[in-house]
Amino acid sequence: MIGVLVNWAPASSITAALASPVASPAPLAVRAEIGAAIERARQHFEARDTDGVLAYVSNQYRSQGLTKAAVREQLLAMFALYEALQVSVSVDQIQTVEGTFWVYTTGSVSGRLPLVGRVTFLSWERQPEVARREGSWWRLYGFQD
Is residue 66 part of a domain? Predict the structure, then answer.
């Protein structure tokens, strides 16, 4: 009986759980706009256009300790290492959560290395990312941790 009582959550955490934000499907127009922005960013990536890719990343981007400056460094490293890059990305779902848009994507990145050939070096499945409109652009905003 003591084990059962110890595992009970405090009332404040139960209240917080009940007040969790509700996700709903994003409007079709928003899904189309975000999907088009992702496709343009993908094209810039394959063209090895650092500034073109970063145009789709908010200056306030922060997610899991990663900032826009760190994303720039990663892009430059990939562009220096691989002779050619190819990205496959599909939008699985876009949801509205308290006025923000959570974009879930699945994809992979491969590159061609000298003497080795093409290798897939990054893949993900249903990875969430927060996007928001900044002016007339949709940009990745991160989870702001």
Answer: yes
Task: Indicate the pTM of the whole model.
Answer: 0.83
Residue-range definition of the domain harbouring residue 88: 21-140
Whether 5 is in a domain gets the answer no
Per-residue pLDDT band at 1 (split at 50, 70, 90): very low
Query: Is 8 part of any domain?
Result: no
Percent of the chain's residues with pLDDT above 90: 79
Q: Which three-class secondary structure state does DSSP give residue 130?
A: strand
What's the rounded Cα separation, in Å, for the pair 91 and 46? 18
**Structural domains in the chain (count):** 1
pLDDT at 14 over 70: no
Element (H, E) at 48: none
Q: What are phi and psi of 83, to 5 degrees?
A: -70, -35
Amino acid letter for position 42:
R
Which pLDDT value is given to residue 19?
A: 60
